[in-house]
Design brief:
By secondary structure, the protein is of the alpha/beta class. Helix content is 39%, strand content 20%. The strands form 2 sheets. Strands 1-2-3-4-5-6-9 form a 7-stranded parallel barrel, surrounded by 6 helices. A two-stranded antiparallel sheet has the order 7-8. α3 runs parallel beside α5 and α4 packs across α5. It is globular, with a radius of gyration of 17 Å. The two termini are 13 Å apart.
Length: 251
């Protein structure tokens, strides 16, 4: 019997038109849930359908991954938007992905905002409330994935949604528990050994050490790995192997 159980999720379905991004289906045997781009920051209808089909073949939980309308910036650039705009774009994208999942005989499990929208909602309670309400109105049985201890988690719980506190294997943390911005040189952990050490510490001890050496308390219900990384497949296989050795079951 495993000592710990953890959901390992991966952002996928980020190809668009003639452009292929990620190695989605090869990664699927190593994870337990997927977050599928819905066409705003990445993805398109054909990619959404194909990714849903692949996820169902691998018996993975499927989530919508709504982002900002910014294909060129991959949804990682902040935009000024109202609470109503955040609500509308979340509901729109969630509904689109839910339709593909239903058409293939599956059930949408969760919603996880992408990129800048995710990070903005982590600290902005107004945006967080709007996103949580959109998810609830789409389907109140959906789970909302949000940064551990963030405003998005608080808003979701207040709205009546189930939540999963998310942590990141390959991202550096700040002492306030937020992710180090990607425009800083130390935002990404490229050494697989260090990333795995960080994530095992988060799962087993409930803490993460920030880039300036502060231990921050977190809750790890689900771990994100990024499907668009150069060595994403190798990292997925490596973290899967280390978890097995540590008695951490991915489910």
């Amino acid at each position: 019997m495993a000592d710990f159980y953890i959901d390992l999720n991966c952002d996928m379905g980020e190809s668009f038109g003639a452009y292929t991004k990620g190695n989605d289906e090869a990664i699927m045997p190593f994870i337990s849930s997927v977050n599928i781009a819905c066409g705003f920051h990445a993805g398109d209808p054909a990619t959404m359908k194909q990714t849903v089909k692949a996820a169902l073949r691998h018996n993975l939980k499927i989530g919508a991954h709504p982002g900002l309308p910014d294909l060129q910036g991959f949804g990682r650039r902040e935009m000024k938007l109202s609470a109503e705009e955040a609500y509308d774009m979340t509901l729109y994208q969630t509904g689109a992905l839910a339709a593909f999942v239903k058409a293939e005989g599956g059930t949408l499990n969760h919603v996880k905002p992408h990129g800048a929208l995710y990070n903005m909602a982590a600290i902005n309670s107004v945006l967080a409330d709007a996103i949580a309400q959109a998810v609830y109105d789409a389907d109140s049985s959906l789970i909302l994935y949000g940064l551990s201890g963030s405003e998005l988690i608080t808003s979701a719980e207040r709205t009546g949604l189930m939540v999963k506190n998310e942590v990141f294997a390959d991202r550096a943390y700040q002492s306030n528990g937020t992710l180090t911005p990607r425009n800083q040189s130390n935002a990404l952990i490229t050494d697989h050994k260090l990333a795995i050490q960080q994530v095992i510490k988060m799962v087993e001890q409930g803490i993460v050490t920030s880039h300036d050496g502060v231990n921050v308390a977190i809750k790890a219900d689900t771990i994100c790995i990024h499907g668009d990384g150069r060595n994403a497949l190798e990292f997925a296989a490596e973290i899967h192997r280390h978890f097995k050795n540590e008695g951490i079951a991915i489910k």
